[in-house]
Write a structure and sequence with these properties.
Helices cover 11% and strands 26% of the residues. It is an alpha+beta fold and 334 residues long. A hairpin with a 2-residue loop joins strand 10 (261-267) and strand 11 (270-278).
């Protein structure tokens, strides 16, 4: 009788019997009371029901955890909040490129360096006399009645030159409308020339440097298209045997120059050489009073059977091949 259900059943039964008894004995229902009177019986029953209502806690199973084991807390957590879906990437419309204005580039003019200067080189100068009668190009200089200029400055391999008999020279220069004439007497006690063509400088030979436009590049200390280097061999293996001329500079015009007339005369202590060089070789139209950068030089090789340039002498003591500013002057006179 102590169970909650038995108590509830007994209370309901008593209530029903009480109501039947009133009706059965013919008792008149009491007059209604204007003031609200609490229904104590109903309240008691409701309270009794609430007191005996089983709680949620009493119905949950008890979790027994063995010693040393971890409790699975995941089962005690609420369902995770659904992840907020990341918005899908909305394609960004690509702007259609508009053509950019094409500006006309501004042309910046680089100042042109001027190498112009006096039309005559300072220092050593040779006067080339006009020749009314062209010399006979055979190596015999007896028909030359011109100024003689020494060409004995040791400009390369000075330690290989023992004395004047080993290597020394003098030079004469003339001209007319067709040719530049050069005559030289060379002292060289041992004639050795075992090279030809572009290598002739590695043996006994002569050389002419000519700057054909001094005024335009007076201050330009490097070779240019108007600077010429012409070499002449007095003969291969012996004096007067197949003499030849070769142009090294300008490089664009490099090659043999068969149009150069060469006369060689061997002597007991060296050789005489005569040259008639067409002005066309230098691209020049000559006139009296004209100036050129100029140097006349002689190369020497005393090592028989070898091809080597041992030494060089020149009429210009400052002569350096690739520096035209070190060359001397040649003036065409009447």
């Amino acid at each position: 009788m102590n169970s909650p259900k038995q108590k509830i059943t007994l209370a309901l039964a008593l209530l029903i019997l009480s109501m039947l008894a009133c009706n059965y004995f013919g008792s008149t229902a009491p007059a209604p009371i204007l003031t609200s009177t609490p229904d104590l019986t109903r309240t008691a029953i409701i309270n009794l029901l609430q007191e005996n209502q089983p709680t949620a806690t009493s119905e949950l199973p008890t979790i027994t955890v063995a010693t040393g084991q971890d409790v699975d807390t995941q089962s005690e957590e609420a369902s995770p909040t659904p992840e907020t879906p990341e918005p899908s990437a909305t394609p960004i419309p690509t702007d259609t490129p508009h053509p950019t204005n094409t500006h006309t580039p501004t042309i910046t003019l680089t100042p042109t360096t001027s190498y112009a200067g006096p039309g005559m080189r300072p220092g050593t100068s040779i006067a080339a006399a006009y020749m009314d009668n062209a010399p006979n190009i055979n190596g015999d200089l007896s028909d030359w009645d011109l100024g003689i200029y020494p060409a004995a400055n040791q400009v390369y391999g000075a330690d290989k030159i023992s004395d004047e008999a080993d290597l020394t020279a003098n030079v004469m220069v003339g001209w007319d409308e067709d040719y530049l004439y050069i005559g030289a007497r060379v002292k060289d006690e041992a004639y050795v020339q075992n090279a030809t063509g572009k290598n002739m400088y590695k043996g006994d030979s002569v050389e002419i440097l000519l700057d054909t436009n001094v005024g335009a590049d007076y201050y330009l200390d490097s070779l240019s298209a108007d600077d010429y280097q012409l070499g002449v061999s007095p003969g291969y293996t012996s004096k007067g045997s197949n003499p030849e001329a070769y142009l090294w500079f300008p490089m664009a015009k490099e090659g043999s120059r068969s149009q150069v007339q060469i006369g060689v005369l061997g002597t007991t202590n060296g050789y005489h050489i005569e040259l008639a060089i067409p002005w066309s070789v230098f691209g020049v139209s000559p006139y009296a009073g004209q100036h050129f950068g100029f140097a006349f030089s002689v190369s020497d090789n005393d090592l028989g059977g070898q091809t080597v340039q041992q030494s060089m002498i020149s009429n210009v003591s400052t002569r350096m091949l690739t520096h035209p500013m070190t060359w001397g002057d040649l003036t065409l006179t009447n």
